[in-house]
Amino acid sequence: xxxxxxxxxxxxxxxxRLELSExxxxxxxxxxxxxxxxxxxxSEVDVEGVEPMYTPIEDNAELRTNEPRFFEGRDxxxxxFPEEKESHIKVPGIHR
Length: 96
Hints:
Mean pLDDT: 87
CATH superfamily of the domain at 6-42: Glu-tRNAGln amidotransferase C subunit, N-terminal domain
Number of helices: 3
Helix content: 25-40%
Order of helices and strands: HHHEE
Structural class: mainly alpha
CATH topology of the domain at 6-42: Histone, subunit A
Number of strands: 2
CATH architecture of the domain at 6-42: Orthogonal Bundle
Strand order of the largest sheet: 1-2
């Protein structure tokens, strides 16, 4: 069984360039320990005779054709915008 220690959390905090409070460290230690305990529990599952999966999706995704199509929902989108100018949606400019 792997035990999460304060030294490990401090090391990870340093690698991630974080500055955590003591309360945050304690919470993180607890969360990490729960995750590791769960992973260890999974290692006890009997997978004898189960073929490994490389992906949970066995079918290839069917791609749509790359052709322009008329979009029928334009009026619904325009309704959500307060202003329209020359059949275009008017939005506020971006200021820096």
